[in-house]
C-alpha cells in the first residue's frame, strides 16, 4: 500500500461524498476484503467499515465509474489547496 511507504500521502476521492454521489455506479463484490487496513485516516477507516457492512446498496466503487466532472473538480480543488 502506498501510504505505508509515503506517510504524508493523502487521498482525493476515498470519502463518503464520493461514494454518495456515485452510489448508483457501485457494483457488488462477492468476496470483499474485510481485514482492517493500516494507514487509513479516521474518515477513510469509517468509509471502509461502511462499505464492508452494507451501509450502501453495493460494496465497491471502481475509479473508472466516477464521473469525469467530479474527478476534474476534485483535482482542481487539490491543486488549489
What is the chain-wise order of helices and strands? HHHH
| Span between termini | 24 Å
Low-confidence stretches: none
Overall pLDDT metric: 88
Helicity range:
40-55%
How many individual domains?
1
User: What would you call the shape?
Assistant: globular
Per DSSP, the total helix count is 4
As a percent range, the share of strand residues is under 5%
Instruction: State the major sheet.
Output: none
Number of strands: 0
Supply the helix-strand structural class. Answer: mainly alpha
Describe this structure in words.
This protein has 81 residues and is mostly helical. It has one domain (2-80). It contains 4 helices and no strands. It has helices at 2-5, 16-21, 42-52, 68-80. The chain is globular and about 35 Å long.
List the helices and strands and how they pair.
Elements: H1 2-5, H2 16-21, H3 42-52, H4 68-80
TL;DR of this structure?
By secondary structure, this protein is mainly alpha-helical. It has helices at 2-5, 16-21, 42-52, 68-80.
Amino acid at each position: 500500500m502506498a501510504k505505508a511507504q509515503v506517510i504524508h500521502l493523502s487521498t482525493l476521492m476515498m470519502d463518503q461524498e464520493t461514494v454518495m454521489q456515485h452510489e448508483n455506479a457501485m457494483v457488488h463484490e462477492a468476496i470483499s476484503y474485510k481485514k482492517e487496513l493500516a494507514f487509513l485516516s479516521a474518515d477513510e477507516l469509517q468509509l471502509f467499515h461502511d462499505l464492508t457492512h452494507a451501509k450502501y446498496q453495493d460494496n465497491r466503487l471502481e475509479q473508472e465509474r466516477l464521473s469525469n466532472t467530479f474527478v476534474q473538480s476534485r483535482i482542481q480543488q487539490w491543486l488549489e489547496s
